[in-house]
Amino acid sequence: MTEQPRVLRFAIIGAGMAGILSAIKLEERGFTDFTVFEKADRVGGTWRENTYPGLSCDVPSHLYSYSFAPTPDWSHRFSPGKEIQAYFERVAEEHGIADDIRFGDEVTSCRFVDGRWHIETAGGHHDVADVVIAATGVLHQPRYPDIDGLEDFEGAVFHSSRWNHDVKLDGARIGIVGTGSTAVQMFSALVDRAGRLSLFQRTAQWIMPQENPPYTDEERAAFRSNPEQLTEVRANLTRMFDTFANAIVDADSPEMTMIAGMCRDNLEKNVHDPELRERLRPDYRAGCKRLVISPDFYGAIQRPNAELVTEGIDRVEGEGVRTRDGKLHELEVLVLATGFRTDAFMRPMSVTGRDGRTLADEWAARPSAYMSVSIPGFPNFFMLNGPNGPVGNFSLIEVAELQFDYILQLVERLRVGECREVSASRAAMEQHEAAREEAVKKTVWVTGCRSWYLDDRGIPATWPWSFDRFRTEMQTPHEAAFEYR
Ligand SMILES: Cc1cc2nc3c(=O)[nH]c(=O)nc-3n(C[C@H](O)[C@H](O)[C@H](O)COP(=O)(O)OP(=O)(O)OC[C@H]3O[C@@H](n4cnc5c(N)ncnc54)[C@H](O)[C@@H]3O)c2cc1C
Q1: What count of other Cβ atoms lies within 10 Å of the Cβ of residue 7?
Q2: Whose CA is nearest to atom 26 of ligand 1?
Q3: Which of 128, 211, 314, 436 has CA 20 to 30 A from 467's CA?
Q4: Prediction pTM value
Q5: 49 CA distance to ligand 1 centroid (A)?
Q6: Cα separations (Å) of 472 from 250, 360, 469, 478?
Q7: Nearest CA, atom 29, ligand 1
Q8: Residue of 373, 396, 399 to test ligand 1 pocket, by largest number of atoms within 8 Å of CB
Q9: Half-sphere exposure in the Cβ direction for 128 (13 Å, CA)
Q10: Where does ligand 1 bind, in terms of residues with CB under 6 Å?
Q11: 151 CA to middle of ligand 1, Å?
């Protein structure tokens, strides 16, 4: 061991939920030499970018909050996106990290040279850091559908995460492509405003009914005056969501059967026209795709000005969408709620690790990492919400917090001088991947649907064990799983 602890310099890439968390936790641990690089001009990531009508969390707000920054003020059980964005901005401000963020400059490359990371930005800035934290998000790069003629559309067309607020919605003929959580949330929010609202459905979704009551002033006052109540709410929600997380990794569990029953009852009791009901009935099991949660979608789709289009899209024309049956659906606004490139992670940024090996080489087949956080041969480079991590209907904040505490334990080895470089060993990553690929076989994600969880081989790119196991694994890094130099 060296005598003096090393003074480490950090580069955090991204100032969304995970980047803010990293900056706060580094400060807390006395690591004050860091810069957060954020290509946009504000913090917030997902919640800054997504501003579509109806956006809300689909994890209860008291669970979708940092453990170190609970707030009594959430307006609803599932609070709106604007409020979540305001929460992240407030937490960043209260912890004084704004001055540590370099806004408006995208990191384009990270290169490991002589034991340190050399960082280049689009704006021509150069920096050097000992440790890189990639907090660049997973639902971040919009996925545009491959539909002929999109560029010919004469109305307004945009991706759900790039909402054009100049476009008039009231009374307009609006089409939404996609049926995921985003499409469902915006459908319910737009139906009362649109003249006509058409949902272009490729795949029907199971919808889990969840009421979204507001918190009363009394409840919020009670949370404020009695923080123990806040802790209790969070603990109860954690227990509830753990049940869900554990159910989906065991396709035959009684809880999974219960969830499937709730979704089926929701469809059967709340959609009255038998023909519409069948068109809305998925032909795969509930939970196979990320479960969509909504208290009001079935009500919205049955409104007189609502239309479910199940005929496939042939092409887009100047006037609207033409479906394969030859019918033209005339539209003024077309929203592409078609999700994200979930295999991009920090790309297009280029990353070059030890001995000139690039991320493009390493991820030529598909993204992979040991425990989602470390890539063999890319020392002192860590990811939050990286490849194959927990996904599902639970809080990614808890995931990122656990991962960051795990990473800090590896960083501590650098700080005290036990080593100068640490990254996962290839053998550990391969073993981890083999075990993961075996375990996914009993999850509900492989029971016969197309979803963004599945990689190019049809293997879910997710954590296939219980959430408790994730918590346990994140307690302490396995000594032998890492290479130290
Ligand atoms: C519509 C929607 C609803 C969601 N709802 C939920 C939910 O209910 N519960 C839940 O747990 N999760 C939800 N998520 C997932 C959500 O993405 C995460 O919860 C969380 O916000 C991710 O935070 P992050 O910091 O990891 O990534 P992001 O929020 O994506 O932030 C990444 C940041 O990195 C910046 N960045 C990226 N690359 C670079 C670069 N090269 N240089 C500089 N800056 C860069 C980006 O500009 C961005 O600000 C939702 C996602 C979407 C899209």
Answers
A1: 10
A2: 137
A3: 211
A4: 0.96
A5: 9
A6: 19, 31, 5, 11
A7: 45
A8: 396
A9: 5
A10: 13-19, 37-40, 45-46, 50, 55, 57-59, 64, 106-107, 135-137, 139-140, 182, 349, 384-385, 395-396
A11: 28
Residue with tokens 């979708």: 64
Give the distance (Å) from ligand 1 centre to CA of residue 399: 13
CA angle 478-399-418, nearest 5°? 35
The one-digit pLDDT tens for each residue of the chain (485 residues) are 446 899 999 999 999 999 999 999 999 999 999 999 999 999 999 999 999 999 999 999 999 999 999 999 999 999 999 999 999 999 999 999 989 999 999 999 999 999 999 999 999 999 999 999 999 999 999 999 999 999 999 999 999 999 999 999 999 999 999 999 999 999 999 999 999 999 999 999 999 999 999 999 999 999 999 999 999 999 999 998 888 778 878 888 898 999 999 999 999 999 999 999 999 999 999 999 999 999 999 999 999 999 999 999 999 999 999 999 999 999 999 999 999 999 999 999 999 999 999 999 999 999 999 999 999 999 999 999 999 998 777 799 999 999 999 999 999 999 999 999 999 999 999 999 999 999 999 999 999 999 989 999 999 999 999 889 999 999 999 999 999 99
Determine the atom of ligand 1 nearest the C-alpha atom of 137: 27
State how far the Cα of 230 lies from the Cα of 226, in Å rounded to an integer: 7
Q: How many C-beta atoms lie closer than 10 Å to residue 344's C-beta? A: 17
Do 127 and 109 touch, CB atoms closer than 8 A? no
Beta carbons of 101 and 24 less than 8 angstroms apart: no
